[in-house]
TrEMBL record:
It is found in: Secreted, Cell wall. SUPFAM superfamilies: Pectin lyase-like (SSF51126). Residues 1-24 form the signal peptide. InterPro entries: Glyco_hydro_28, Pectin_lyas_fold, Pectin_lyase_fold/virulence. One of its GO terms (molecular function) is polygalacturonase activity. Keywords: Cell wall, Cell wall biogenesis/degradation, Glycosidase, Hydrolase, Secreted, Signal. Belongs to the glycosyl hydrolase 28 family. This is Polygalacturonase. It comes from Trapa incisa. It comes from the Eukaryota. One of its GO terms (biological process) is carbohydrate metabolic process. Pfam families: Glyco_hydro_28. The keyword Lipid metabolism does not apply. The keyword Hydrolase applies.
């Protein structure tokens, strides 16, 4: 029997095992209620979001998902810093809502230094849009307070 006939099935098997091992790493869902978030629209879920992100960001390999389920999650300010050890999917199926006092901060939700970030889902980011626009007088006032950016 020739070497290629003997070793080829073993090499194919080994390759498939390695591919499966790489694909099975990561791919963990970090649902923000497991970190203390409540979807009542009133309680601050900022820390829960940041904690879920931190855990997902530190998993080596795969695509790790931060899940914002149905519900309204109030966020005063959240910063998500990379780099991460795997790919990150930020899935929003509920509403991430800004707090009424958001004008006091220069950011609301910030994603920084994250390679391969994917934002998915059927939910929304509600930064109060139009109701905050009248607070922006920067065209007329050089000393204005800049409103926070969404992303």
């Amino acid at each position: 029997m020739e070497w290629s006939q003997t070793c080829m099935p073993f090499l194919i098997f080994l390759f498939l095992v390695l591919v499966n091992e790489v694909r099975s790493r990561g791919n963990t869902v970090f649902e923000i209620r497991q970190f203390g978030a409540t979807g009542d629209g009133q309680s601050d879920s900022s820390k829960a979001l940041e904690d879920a992100f931190s855990n997902a960001c530190n998993v080596v390999g795969g695509r790790n998902q931060i899940l914002v389920p149905e519900g309204t999650f109030m966020v005063t300010s959240a910063v998500f810093d990379g780099p991460c050890k795997g790919l990150i999917e930020f899935r929003v199926d509920g509403v991430i809502k800004a707090s009424a006092g958001i004008v006091d901060d220069d950011k609301w939700v910030a994603f920084r230094y994250i390679d391969g970030l994917v934002i998915t889902g059927e939910g929304t980011f509600d930064g109060f849009g139009e109701s905050a626009w009248n607070l922006n007088d920067c065209k007329m006032n050089s000393q204005c307070t800049h409103l926070p950016t969404d992303f």
